Amino acid sequence: MKLSILCSDPAHPVMPYLQRWVAENAGRHAISLVQRKSELPGGELLFLVSCREILRAEERAAYRASLVLHASDLPRGRGWSPHIWEIAGGAGSITLSLLEAADAVDSGRIWRKLVIPVPQHALWDEINARLFAAEIEMIDFAVAGFGRIDPVPQADDSDAMVYRRRTPEDSRVDPHASLASQFDKIRVADPQRFPAFFDLRGHRYKLILEKIDGPDTAD
Predict the structure, then answer these.
(1) pTM of the predicted model, to two decimals?
(2) What is the pLDDT of residues 181-219, one digit of tens each?
(3) What CA–CA distances, in Å, run from 144 to 34, 81, 110, 134?
(4) Peptide linkage before 75 cis (omega within 30 of 0)
(5) What is the residue-wise DSSP string for 166-210?
(6) Separation of first and last alpha carbons in the chain
(7) Are strands 43-48 and 63-70 parallel, antiparallel or unpaired?
(8) By the 8 A CB rule, do 101 and 55 touch?
C-alpha cells in the first residue's frame, strides 16, 4: 500500500517511533513521513500524528482514508493535549482513539480505542513511551485491517469536553504549596519542551524531575 504519516514537528518525541516504524515496514509498503501537508503524495492511508495543520476535505480526498491518533476517549477530550490535561488532573489511565479526520476537529468516526494504564508514579518520558507504543499499535491495526474495519460514529457529544491549547503558564508550580499536591502537574512536564517552573525571590527556576530507583516496571 501507499501510506503517509504527517507529523508537524520533526523534534517531537514521537518522531523516533515513527521513523523506526517506517524503516521496519518500508519493504512492504511505500511510506512517506512528512512534516507539511504540502508534501503529501496521496495514496491509500494517511495518519495524522501530532499534526498542527488542518486538512480540508479536498486534501483528505487524496487518500482512501485519513486517520487521526487522538489521546482521549472521544467525544470527551477533544482539542489540545488531552492526555496531559487528564493525567495532570489525576487520571490513572488514558484512552487513545483512532478516528477519521473530518471537517469538525476530532469529530470523525471511530476505528478503534485503546485504554492505556498510566501508573501514578510514571513521569513524562514513561508516559510518552506507553502512548507512542500504543500509537504504533494503532497504525499496525489500521494497515492490517484496511478495507475490513467498520468505523462507528462517535457517541452523543452533548457533553463533549474540549481542551484548550496548553501554554507555558500551565506548567507553573507554586513554591509555597506542597510537592505532593502538585506532583501530577510536574510529572507530565517535558523538561526540554514544556518545563515545570516557579518564581521565587526575584528569579525563575526550572524543575527537572527524574527517577533514581530504576525504570517504570510497575503498573
Answers:
(1) 0.92
(2) 999 999 999 998 899 999 999 999 999 999 998 655 555
(3) 22, 28, 16, 15
(4) yes
(5) P-GGGGB--TTS-TGGGHHHHHT--TTTS-EEEEETTEEEEE---
(6) 37
(7) parallel
(8) yes
Q: Say how far apart CA 91 and CA 116 lie, in whole Å.
A: 11
Beta strands in the chain (DSSP E): 2-6, 30-34, 43-48, 63-70, 78-79, 93-100, 110-117, 162-163, 196-200, 203-207
Coil, strand, or helix at residue 4? strand
Cβ-based neighbours of 161, under 8 Å, separated by 6 or more: 76, 77, 78, 79
Rounded CA-CA distance 144/140 in Å is 6
Which H helix or E strand runs over 19? helix 15-25
Contact predicate 99/67, CB 8 Å? yes
Reading the block at residue 38, the C-alpha cell is 504540502
Residue bearing cell 487513545: 96
Task: Tell me how many helices (H) and strands (E) the chain has.
Answer: 5, 10
The answer to whether the beta carbons of residues 166 and 146 sit under 8 Å apart is no
Reported as a single tens digit per residue, the pLDDT across 45-79 is 999 999 999 999 999 999 999 999 999 999 999 99
Is pLDDT at 156 greater than 90 in this prediction?
A: no
Please classify residue 218 by burial: count the beta carbons closer than 10 Å to its beta carbon, then call 0-12 exposed, 13-18 middle and 19+ buried: exposed
Pairing of strands 93-100, 110-117: antiparallel
Identity of the amino acid at 53: E
